[in-house]
Amino acid sequence: MINNINSITPLIETDARSTPSAAGSFKPEDVNTLNESVPDYPEGFLERVADQGKIVEWAPQEKVLAHPAIACFLTHCGWSSVTESLSRGVPFLCWPSFGDQFHNQSYINDVWKAGLQLDLDENGSRSRDEIKNKILLLLSDGNFKENALKLKKMAEQTIGPDGSSFKNFEKFIMFLKN
């Protein structure tokens, strides 16, 4: 597992240059590739994963989540990430680490039923088999995607002219004017 802040984003940079239609709204300049400030990876690692993905320092998360090739989102369950995934209708694979992330995970899994949590093994780690099995379950059970799409629709309705967020924002503006 990668123990730093970098993301593994499947072939975004390569696809954006070679097949624009496959990359959706991505442009090569949207993705910052590795530079000298990033710690060294084990010898041969980058070559071994070159045809499976692309390691980048930063990628535009909202654009990534909006891409039609994205089937689920491995997330720490921070609120911003939750709302970005929710507003795109993308199911969650939850890996919280502290604070409100555990509460957010409970909502995602137990209330909204739009994702799964990654469980710890007997050594206190999340194994590759656990990740693989949860991804397979998440993708094979259409209820997760269906529930994520329902949440997306609800989120869209709240910001529409008759939605609660829209109305509350209007009330706030009126309060400021008075």
TrEMBL record:
Task: Name the keywords, alphabetized.
Answer: Transferase
The keyword Transcription belongs to this UniProt entry's keyword annotation: no
Q: Which Gene3D superfamilies match?
A: Glycogen Phosphorylase B
Matches recorded under Pfam families:
UDPGT
The GO terms describing molecular function are:
UDP-glycosyltransferase activity
What name does this protein carry? Answer: Glycosyltransferase
Phylogenetic lineage? Eukaryota, Viridiplantae, Streptophyta, Embryophyta, Tracheophyta
